[in-house]
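Why does residue order matter? Because the sequence determines the fold. Keep that principle in mind as you read this record.
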Amino acid sequence: MQRSATSTHRAPIPALRDVVRLLKPITWFPPMWAFMCGAVSSGASMDGRWLFVAAGIILAGPLVCGTSQAVNDWFDRHVDAINEPDRPIPSGRIAGRWGLYVAIAGTVLSAIIAGLLGPWVLVAGLVGLGLAWAYSAPPFRFKSSGWAGPAVVGLTYEGLSWFTGASVMTGTLPSAQVLIVLALYSVGAHGIMTLNDFKAVEGDRQTGLKSLPVTLGVKNAARLACVVMAAAQAIVIALLAYWGLTVSAIAVSVLLLAQLAAMPRLLSNPAKYAPWYNAVGVLLYVLGMLAAALGLGSYI
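Structure:
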């Protein structure tokens, strides 16, 4: 019997450029930024910690986030064949099981680096890696739910990366204030991830993925995303003010007002303007994260 062309015995080793594309460097920015916010929020000095910080940034971005992208593309190769057939796996540039091998290798390397950075970083890293696989792989496949999927991504991209940054700097569990704020920004990121689902509505419908744009409709999903993002930041502002971090509270307030000014354009045509808002509104959101982190660093 003739073997399939996709057999791992015949599949060529993928080119480095295709592996890099599989890992999607453009997606590394949010967790790397959140890691930096965590480091700042710890209030600890960078002196003598630069190597740890550099390793933590690599862990948050190229390793854990990059691994999550490889896992997602492997288990979503049938969806990508509809939405984005030029991606490395459906296009055949990464053939056979090489996509799976890259995901496994990234998982192992990420766990090793996390362990070297300390016990709390290891815990956060293992949770993040576990969620990365559960997000895309059966039997959990959280991404099939428009509610659970964005929550998982928001927690890993923002919350766990922030947690890792704070833990790398102190070697301990972050303070209660830091944990509360990172949790709120993780909740707000649910809205960002919902907007990100707009680009794959047709493929999601055909393959049975119940993203919020599919189940609620594009306009209702956009309204919900705006409410979630704004509400989380409003609570952060109230807490910063309560803790006496007035400057940070004002800075986050100004950035939130700018987002509110941009939201009507998004809501006028969510399918058209979601990419625009992901560039403009999300930038304002992550600047608010840094403003809050700076305040927490001075408070602690």
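Residues 1-8 have pLDDT under 50 and may be disordered.
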